[in-house]
Amino acid sequence: MHSPSNTRPRGLMRTALAGAAMASVLAAAGCGRASAAAGTHVPAAAISRLTAIAHRAASINGDPAPAWISAVMTTRAKALTAATPGDYVPGSAHVKVFLIIMRGHFTAGEVSVPPGAKAPAGRYLSLVIDAGTFQGLDFGIGPKPPPVPPASLGPVTYLTGHGR
Questions:
Q1: Which element (helix H / strand E) includes 159?
Q2: pTM greater than 0.85
Q3: Whether residues 19 and 50 fall in one domain
């Protein structure tokens, strides 16, 4: 008599192995749930304050009602890869921050630009907020979603709307 493990059809075994291999590849690439669950959740006590900060920034930058606003808790070094790619702040690898990203129609009207240049504008506004003081540290506006998805940095909390 055969043992139960030897009686499975070969095709089913290959399918199971292929599925397990694909799941591990996706998890390693940051596409699985494991990567999102690895960080710290945005504390419930911070949500109302972050929502107010986000709405104020959205209004100042031309869109008082963005389609959605999300927040994730991470380090400043990691947040910069999404909010302002290419920027580096020495010592930021251990500074806890909230990365806020929103989708709307924004123009940075309060920034200085060279004579004749237009103010930065785009559909995505990113803010980096110090988790201890709630002070704004970094800011970015761009036409495309951040190159580093917030879910790869930690669990995402939607402050308003629902991201798509």
A1: strand 157-160
A2: no
A3: no
